[in-house]
Description:
Helices cover 0% and strands 46% of the residues. The protein has strands at residues 19-29, 36-44, 52-58, 64-71, 77-79, 84-85, 100-112. It is globular and about 45 Å long. The protein starts with 18 loop residues before the first strand and ends with a strand.
Amino acid sequence: xxxNTSPEGVNQISDLVVGVYRANATVYVSPDRxxxxxLAEFGPESDGQVTFAELLIHxxxxxxxxxxxxxxxxxxWRDSCGEKRPNLGELFPAELMSxxxxxxxxxxxxxxxxxx
Length: 116
């Protein structure tokens, strides 16, 4: 997982509960422009919840858009810029809603913190 460790990013690896996280990625493409997006979703192996997500959009000019999203204890989702919304999709760029899913794939489990 590519958790932002920059002081400019609000979400930090320390915000996650220590443990093993299952991970899945979904690849999307724009129907009218050559953009691609990958949404990686992570959650504790112990339940089916998604508690962290990363979105990477690759533009045709080589530009990259990256954001991460954390589910807060109050149930709201917070993006890496600090904006909060009740639903994860409300934090995505509006253009992403027109993208089409082309592939889903499991990712290796991720370990957060010291499980000792």
